Amino acid sequence: MKFSIFYEMQISDPTRESEAKLFHECVEQTMLADELGYHCVWEVEHHGLYEYSHSSAPEIFLSFVAARTKRIRLGHGVTLLPHRYNHPIRIAERIATLDVLSEGRVNWGSGKSSSLVEQLAFENDVRQLHDQWREALSMIPRMWQEDVFSFKGRFFDVPPTQVIPKPVQRPHPPLYAACSKPESAVQVGALGLGALNFAVGNDKYLKEKVVNYRSAVEHARTDGWQVNNHFACTPPCVVLDDDREACRHGFRGARFFVEALARYYFAGDRPTGRLELPRSDLSDAELREAMAFRTSKDAQLTAVVGEPSAAREMIQRFVEAGVDELILIMQMGTVPHDIIMRSLRTFGEKVMPHYA
Amino acid sequence: MAIHPVARRFFDTLVLVGKLRGPFPFDERLERPGLQGEVNFELTGDNGWTWHCRLDSEGMIFRRGGGFEPVATISMAPETFAALMRGEQSFATAQMTGRVRVRGDGHATFILGAMVTQFRRASEQSGWRGKLARGWQLFVLGERKVSAA
Q: Which residue of A18, A51, A72, A95 shows the fewest CB atoms closer than 10 Å?
């Protein structure tokens, strides 16, 4: 099992000052994660999702992190492939440049965007997003492998062009794609891509999802890229020596994460301004119930929250489901920087060594 | 025992409207990530009941009673459902505490999240849609005000 960290760049009630501070704090967190032996830092791309995700330029953030770290991998994902967000040639160039400067540390994930906020801000035709993602995906790995690239498809007509520089990883950085439902995990597997999966479902459900993904990977048909058989989940996580303190921050942060996500993705509109969400601590009764329920057989595999032995108990369930990597969401809108730093250290010293 | 009034008014309105005009169409701009399939909403206890929801390319339609092969069954006490709709209970907290439980596809909890969020936000719309939503909210809850939990 590999352990990585995940950044939406969340912030509750931002000001100009606290937003700027957030970015520097996140860099400090990745430097500690590098020192402690975490596998990868994953950084999303979103636009206009105020409070939920201020990560609109992950390529800049990851370049900065690359310069400040030595060995941690740089998960650039997911990059939004529909061309109103990013032209495929620009993506190929940026990823390759980051791979060169970081000396081959890039993992690359792709997606198409699901929020109406960003879809309409960039004037996308939502009905074409999937096909645009698929076409751009078929192009980019070829740009990294071919000296002279040309393409004629539904959305792009590229005359013979030398797309430079080339990445240092051969044949190219490992490829991933976002998925959530069982059928989307199978689709990602059938394309030979690593799965970046939202950790929702009980043990049996997750295990079946992983098995079906692996089976699809075995028969994968790619457009000339290298198959990446890898299944990752993204649970919210706060691990501290004090179980109650970890749960207080972890469940509060997870609630902010999920409620903000629902607000942007499922409310059917395009919110602006401060999100109307609960932000305070859970009540004593709610916290007691959440602490008791987290390891129940009916609890879904959604979070790794608590003191180290409780965390190991939850992680074991992911191990038994066949998951390869946990991309831990410690940076949630209401979790303070010092708690994230302590959580990174506690997890790195008291949980990770059990899975080395 | 009688079915909990908030649940009965909410779901039975959706059942009735579905019968009169067919599935609720989706906004064609939305991709509805994860919002597909057949789901049972099971309200437990003496004044509970089960409703079935089908979401497909035609839209969303409800009926009373459970479906035989849902991708997920979402269960909770009727009082929890009422608290969710009034905005007194966060649906994320309800899942973390086990007040809302899911059997099957865990992704289906987002359908509950969408339902709760859209019900709470609908009254903020302007024009006749907002008036209709405020009237429905008043009918379902017996009061107009909802909060952010």
A: A18
Give the one of B30, B97, B102 whose C-beta lies nearest to A286's C-beta.
B97
pLDDT digits 0-9 by tens, B39-66? 899 999 877 789 988 877 777 788 888 7
Q: How many residues does chain A have?
A: 356
Distance CA A186, CA A212 (A): 6
Of the candidates A201, A262, A269, which has its C-beta nearest B106's C-beta? A201
pLDDT of amino acid A215: 98
Pairing of strands A73-80, A40-43: parallel
Does the CB of B138 have a partner CB in chain A at under 8 Å? Answer: no
Q: What is the mean pLDDT of each run of 10 residues along chain A (356 residues)?
A: 98 98 98 98 98 98 98 97 98 98 98 93 94 97 98 98 98 95 92 89 89 97 95 97 98 96 86 93 96 88 94 95 97 98 98 95
Residue B138 corresponds to which tokens in the numbers above?
Answer: 């008043």
Cβ neighbors of A268 (< 8 A, separation 6 or more) are A116, B27, B30, B114, B118, B121
Tokens coding B80: 């929890």
Cα B76 from chain centroid (whole Å): 12
- Beta-strand relationship, A231-233 and A325-328: parallel
Please, what sign has the CA dihedral across residues A220, A224, A227, A233? negative
DSSP notation for A180-199: -SHHHHHHHHHTTPEEEE--
Residues of A in contact with B28 (CB under 8 A): 126-127
Place of tokens 């997606």: A111
Strands (E), chain A: 2-7, 40-43, 73-80, 106-111, 149-152, 157-161, 175-179, 194-197, 231-233, 237-239, 304-306, 325-328
Nearest-CA neighbor of A344 among A206, A230, A203, A249?
A: A249
pLDDT value of residue B119: 84
Q: Alpha carbon of A240 to those of A38, A243, A312, B91, B114: distances in Å?
A: 17, 6, 12, 26, 33
Non-local (6+) Cβ contacts of A182 within 8 A are A205, A208, A209, A212, B105
- Are the beta carbons of A265 and B33 separated by less than 8 Å? yes
Distance of CA A222 to CAs A134, A192, A230, Å?
11, 6, 15
Q: Residue B145 pLDDT > 70, yes or no?
A: no
pTM for the full predicted model: 0.93
pLDDT category, B29, cuts 50, 70, 90?
Answer: very low
